[in-house]
C-alpha cells in the first residue's frame, strides 16, 4: 500500500466515521429490517411470497437510486447527499406508517429505499477522504458494521413494535432516519479532495481494467447467502425450529454483534496483510462452508435436530455472511480513487442490492412453494463458492492511489 497522506486531526476523522456509522445503522434498519415484519405482514393476510415482495421493496428502491446518488456525491459532496437522502427516507417511512393497503405501503418502502441509498453512495467516501490507507480497512469495517448493527436494532425492536400491525415499526424507522439527517447537517464536513492541475486530464476510469469488475461480481455473489439467511432465518426459526417470534428476534439481534466483530476483524486483517483481495477470497470460502452447513441443519430440523442446533447454525451463518462487505467496499473505494469513488460505490451497491432484491423473493418461493428452506440456504452456499473463483488474485491488486485526507 502507498504511504499515508498527511493525517487530519484524529477527532475529526472519528467524528465523521461515527456520524457515517449512525447514518448507516438507520438506513440499514429500514432497508434490511423488513424480514422481522414478515409475521406481522402475514397476519395482515399476505402470503410469504407476497410479504417477500414488500421485504424486497426498499432494496429495489436502492437499486433505482444508488448510481444517481453516487454521481451527486462525486459532484456536490457527501454532506448534502447524506442529509437529503435520509430526509427523503424519513418522509417515505412516515407514509408507509400511515398507509392502509399493501400496494401503497410497497411504493412508500420503494421510495424509502431510494432515499436511504444515499448513505451507501456517500458515507464510504467519508472513510476514503478522512482516513489514510493504512487505517482504511479498519475504518471501513467500523462503517460497514452499521449493517449488522442496523439489522440487530431492527431484530430487537420491530417484532415488538409490530405487535398491533407494522405501522408502529415504520414510524420508528422514520424517526431514526430523520434524526440522523439532522446529525449529518450539523456535524459532517466534506473531506478535501486532491487538487487538479490546470489543463490536466481527468482521472482515467478505473473500469478499464478487470479488477474492479471482478470485485463487484464477487461481492454480488456474496449477497445471495447474506440475504437468503437474513430474509428467511427469522421465519424459519419460528415456523420450522419452534422458536417464539420474540426469542428468534433476540437471537438474531445477538448474532449481529458477532457480525460487527467479524467485519472489524476482516478489515483489520486486510490492513495488516496489505491486501483486500486475499482476505476477501478466504472469507468467501468460509461463507460457502457455513451456509452449506445451515442448509444441512435445515434439512434435519425438526426431525433429527433440535432448536438449539438450529440456533447455532443460524448464528454462525448470520455472522459469516456479513463479514466480507467492509473489505470489498474498501477495495472498491481504493481502486476507484477520489474522483470515481462515489460512482464506483454506487455501482457496487447497485449490483449488490439488485441481487438482494431478487434473492429474497426467490428464496421465499423456494422455501414456501418449492423444495423448502434447505434449498433456499443451499442456493446461498453455491453462490458463495462461485465468489471464491471470481475474486481477483492478489497479484492483480495495484497499490491504492494516494488520496488527500480531509481537514476540519
Automatic annotation (TrEMBL):
Membrane topology: Multi-pass membrane protein
Main location: membrane
Domain of life: Bacteria
Membrane spanning stretches: 50-73, 80-99, 169-188, 211-234, 240-262, 283-305, 311-333, 345-367, 373-391
InterPro entries linked: MFS, MFS-Transporter, MFS_dom, MFS_trans_sf
Location in or out of the cell: Cell membrane
Record PROSITE patterns: MFS (PS50850)
UniProt domain Major facilitator superfamily (MFS) profile: residue ranges: 1-399
Alphabetical UniProt keywords: Membrane, Transmembrane, Transmembrane helix
Protein name: MFS transporter
Naturally occurring in which organism (per UniProt): Geodermatophilus arenarius
Amino acid at each position: 500500500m502507498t504511504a499515508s497522506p498527511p493525517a487530519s486531526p484524529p477527532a475529526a476523522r472519528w467524528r465523521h466515521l461515527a456520524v457515517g456509522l449512525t447514518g448507516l445503522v438507520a438506513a440499514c434498519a429500514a432497508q434490511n429490517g423488513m424480514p422481522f415484519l414478515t409475521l406481522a405482514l402475514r397476519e395482515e393476510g399476505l402470503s410469504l411470497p407476497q410479504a417477500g415482495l414488500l421485504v424486497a421493496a426498499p432494496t429495489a428502491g436502492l437499486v433505482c437510486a444508488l448510481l444517481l446518488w453516487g454521481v451527486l456525491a462525486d459532484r456536490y459532496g457527501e454532506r448534502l447527499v447524506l442529509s437529503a437522502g435520509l430526509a427523503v427516507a424519513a418522509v417515505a417511512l412516515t407514509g408507509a406508517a400511515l398507509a392502509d393497503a399493501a400496494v401503497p405501503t410497497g411504493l412508500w418502502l420503494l421510495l424509502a429505499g431510494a432515499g436511504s441509498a444515499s448513505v451507501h453512495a456517500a458515507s464510504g467516501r467519508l472513510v476514503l477522504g478522512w482516513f489514510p490507507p493504512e487505517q482504511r480497512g479498519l475504518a471501513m469495517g467500523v462503517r460497514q458494521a452499521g449493517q449488522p448493527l442496523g439489522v440487530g436494532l431492527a431484530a430487537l425492536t420491530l417484532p415488538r413494535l409490530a405487535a398491533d400491525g407494522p405501522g408502529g415499526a415504520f414510524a420508528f424507522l422514520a424517526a431514526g432516519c430523520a434524526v440522523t439527517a439532522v446529525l449529518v447537517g450539523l456535524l459532517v464536513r466534506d473531506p478535501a479532495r486532491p487538487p487538479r492541475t490546470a489543463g490536466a486530464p481527468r482521472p482515467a476510469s478505473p473500469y478499464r481494467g478487470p479488477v474492479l469488475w471482478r470485485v463487484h461480481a464477487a461481492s454480488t455473489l456474496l449477497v445471495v447467502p447474506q440475504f437468503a439467511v437474513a430474509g428467511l432465518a427469522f421465519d424459519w426459526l419460528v415456523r420450522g425450529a419452534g422458536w417464539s417470534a420474540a426469542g428468534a428476534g433476540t437471537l438474531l439481534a445477538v448474532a449481529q454483534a458477532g457480525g460487527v466483530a467479524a467485519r472489524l476483524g476482516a478489515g483489520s486483517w486486510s490492513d495488516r496483510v496489505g491486501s483486500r483481495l486475499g482476505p476477501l477470497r478466504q472469507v468467501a470460502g468460509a461463507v460457502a462452508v457455513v451456509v452449506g452447513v445451515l442448509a444441512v441443519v435445515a434439512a434435519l430440523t425438526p426431525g433429527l435436530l433440535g432448536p438449539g442446533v438450529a440456533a447455532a447454525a443460524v448464528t454462525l451463518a448470520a455472522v459469516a455472511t456479513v463479514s466480507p462487505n467492509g473489505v470489498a467496499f474498501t477495495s472498491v473505494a481504493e481502486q476507484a480513487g477520489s474522483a470515481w469513488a462515489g460512482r464506483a460505490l454506487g455501482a457496487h451497491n447497485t449490483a449488490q442490492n439488485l441481487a438482494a432484491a431478487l434473492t429474497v423473493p426467490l428464496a421465499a418461493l423456494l422455501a414456501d412453494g418449492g423444495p423448502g428452506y434447505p434449498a433456499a440456504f443451499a442456493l446461498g452456499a453455491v453462490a458463495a463458492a462461485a465468489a471464491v473463483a471470481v475474486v481477483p488474485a492478489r497479484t492483480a491488486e495495484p497499490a491504492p492511489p494516494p488520496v488527500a485526507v480531509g481537514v476540519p
